[in-house]
Design a protein that fits this description.
It is built from 29 helices and two strands. The protein is an all-alpha fold. It has a two-stranded antiparallel sheet with strand order 1-2. The N and C termini lie far apart (about 75 Å).
Length: about 525
């Protein structure tokens, strides 16, 4: 173009992007009128597509700017012949990718192709285990702009680059995807027991960072190795439950159970039935939850696996309790507790004590409920089970409110809310907010109670988590009392303020209420 064009274009965003990226890889990259003309030509050839421009600029240290323009133009001409009906923007990106690919040596090409099996990024350990790419190899690919380093040290392939390089993986894809799936199965199995201990928050975050990889591993294993897919789903149950990803967990477990129909029942079948039941219960589908858990229990009785039998009995007790079937719930809980005491499994015993206490609390036997909750809480504190501690604190808060002791309720629920927020456990946070609303009614803090109720119900709606039928009457009665003490307008305004709060705002509001 004419010099005037160059001067005008030099101020454009895409040209600045090219120059900045070029200077990152080649600090001595100088821009005069001649080189700027090449830069502008490259940016126009690439239709201003930022990723293509970054990829092209990454070669400023390897080649002169005129050579980069020549390579882009040559590749585009070749692709123009090969890919007539492909959109221009895709062609321009492919042209630079092909140029970048040509500049890699054979090991770099192999590693980049293998990295394409990751979804949503990867850490250094995973890159080494799955793709054989160590830090040096990753840094080399970063210099070419083919791999991007994120703020937390994880790496990412731009989706379009991932697709181009995956095509090249070809016949090797099956083997590398298998290695990827087994790596993330091992990660989930390592995480599973730690999701009930003091490292809970860190492991939940670790799994959340690799959520896309875990999903891809599960999809691949379901098609290639059903028993391994079932083991992976079984290892992810706490992650799905605590983070509120019930719909995803239900979709995967139900799909696995359909695929396994006709196979002889195994421990893996029972585990998946159990997970499907737990998640169905969380999402308010009691009948499906009961059916799945009864199937798990039948398989475990046939396999004579006492710890698993106790788990299924406990989970069936929860469903019976939530549906108001006190006698059945009591029978399930007591049988489960007896097995757990015999097996000397303290954390499991603590869960049973907590659940029995909730049952007694609903029956108005607050003294017995509080004693069992204190015993449960002591065990959970000794084992560092943060989520378990939060749940028992919520139940102690409920019992304190029922006994008219607002200050004891505030103390329990303040700690519980902080724990749930630290774990990003939104389902249990919703329960804490509901209990704090009840405690506020006891303290005659009616505006705060209705604001918390609004936040609680908005969070439940977002999660798709209805209030359990057995919890409805005391909750509704408390709110009715708060509304009766306010004008209808004031009550409605307080509730609306709560429904407008994001979870973090609801937490800040809850913790600001004077106890």
């Amino acid at each position: 173009g004419e010099p005037g064009d160059v001067a005008d274009a030099s101020g454009t965003e895409v040209v600045r992007l090219f120059v900045e990226r070029a200077r990152q890889v080649a600090p001595a990259f100088a821009v005069d009128a001649a080189s700027m003309a090449h830069v502008v030509a490259i940016c126009r050839l690439l239709e201003g597509l930022p990723l293509a421009i970054e990829l092209a600029a990454a070669h400023a240290g390897d080649a002169g700017i005129a050579a980069i323009e020549r390579a882009v133009r040559t590749n585009l001409d070749a692709l123009d012949v090969d890919l007539r009906d492909v959109p221009g923007r895709h062609r321009s990106l492919r042209a630079v990718f092909d140029h970048s690919w040509a500049l890699l040596d054979a090991p770099e090409r192999s590693r980049l192709a293998r990295l394409t099996v990751f979804h949503g990024g990867f850490d250094a350990a995973s890159a080494l285990a799955v793709a054989g790419a160590d830090d040096g190899a990753l840094e080399a690919l970063e210099r070419h702009s083919l791999v991007v380093r994120e703020g937390d040290g994880r790496r990412l392939l731009h989706e379009q680059v991932r697709q181009f390089a995956f095509e090249i993986l070809g016949a090797a894809a099956e083997d590398v995807q298998g290695r990827h799936a087994r790596h993330f199965l091992a990660l989930a199995q390592e995480a599973e027991p730690r999701l009930a201990g003091p490292e809970q928050a860190a492991w939940l975050d670790r799994l959340a960072r690799d959520h896309h990889n875990l999903r891809a591993a599960l999809d691949w294993l379901e098609r290639r190795s059903l028993p391994d897919a079932m083991r992976l789903a079984a290892a992810l149950w706490r992650f799905w439950l605590y983070r509120g990803d019930w719909a995803e967990g239900i979709q995967h477990t139900e799909s696995l159970l359909r695929a396994a129909a006709g196979h002889p029942p195994s421990r893996e079948h029972a585990l998946v039935h159990n997970v499907a039941g737990i998640l169905a219960s969380a999402s308010g589908d009691g009948p499906r939850a009961r059916e799945r858990l009864e199937q798990a229990l039948a398989i475990w009785r046939a396999l004579d696996s006492p710890a698993d039998i106790a788990n299924a009995l406990n989970n069936l007790g929860v469903i019976a309790d939530e549906e108001g079937d006190v006698e059945r719930a009591l029978g399930r809980y007591e049988e489960s507790l007896a097995i757990r005491r015999r097996l000397d499994r303290p954390l499991d015993v603590a869960v049973s004590l907590n659940n029995l206490a909730v049952l007694y609390s609903r029956q108005g036997d607050l003294g017995r409920a509080r004693a069992l909750l204190e015993e449960s809480l002591a065990i959970k504190r000794a084992h560092g089970d943060q989520r378990g501690i939060a749940m028992t604190l919520a139940n102690l808060g409920e019992a304190a409110s029922a006994a008219g002791d607002a200050s004891a309720a505030f103390a329990c629920l303040g700690e519980g809310i902080r724990l749930c927020w630290a774990l990003q456990d939104l389902p249990d946070l919703a329960e804490q907010l509901a209990q704090l609303a009840r405690a506020c009614v006891v303290a005659a803090a009616d505006t705060a109670a209705l604001t918390l109720a609004g936040a609680h119900e908005a969070l439940r709606a977002r999660l798709g988590a209805p209030i359990a039928p057995a919890d409805r009457p005391p909750y509704d009665a408390a709110l009715a009392k708060a509304r009766a003490r306010l004008t209808p307008e004031a009550g409605a305004a307080a509730f609306a303020a709560g429904t407008a709060m994001a979870p973090g705002e609801a937490v800040a509001f809850a913790l600001s209420i004077p106890s």
